[in-house]
Design a protein that fits this description.
mainly alpha, 7 helices
Length: 127
């Protein structure tokens, strides 16, 4: 993945969809995007993720199509049980790394020679 393509959807698109073709009502990238957004906002169950997506469907429609609506909690759980956890971890780490570097460069340019420890603390709060 190129560092210039920093969108979360771009990084999640490298994850292979292991589901049978006839069982794909929702794109794997859409399910993962919804799940990551929900998790970053404090959701920690499949039902929480579904409720989060349902209440913010208009926002999600700005980024993903959701042609078949919001995936059910069971669908979300099934996708996570089938995807390769290493692929997901690598995609997520790459996305975080790019944003960490961008924020680090921003602080360096904006604040000059800021105390490195303070800089890292500020960056980690924003992630």
């Amino acid at each position: 993945m190129e560092e210039t393509e920093a969108g979360l959807l771009g990084y999640l698109s490298i994850i292979r969809d292991p589901r049978l073709e006839r069982k794909k009502l929702h794109q794997v990238g859409d399910i993962l995007f919804i799940s990551v957004c929900a998790s970053l906002c404090g959701c920690d169950t499949w039902e929480d993720i579904h409720l989060f997506a349902t209440t913010r469907e208009a926002w999600f429609l700005q980024y993903i199509k959701l042609e078949n609506g919001i995936p059910s909690p069971d669908t979300i759980a099934r996708v996570f049980s089938l995807i390769d956890p290493n692929e997901f971890e690598n995609a997520f780490r790459q996305w975080v790394r790019v944003h960490y570097m961008r924020m680090s460069n921003y602080f360096w340019r904006q604040k000059g020679q800021m105390n490195l420890k303070r800089q890292r603390m500020i960056i980690m709060k924003r992630l």
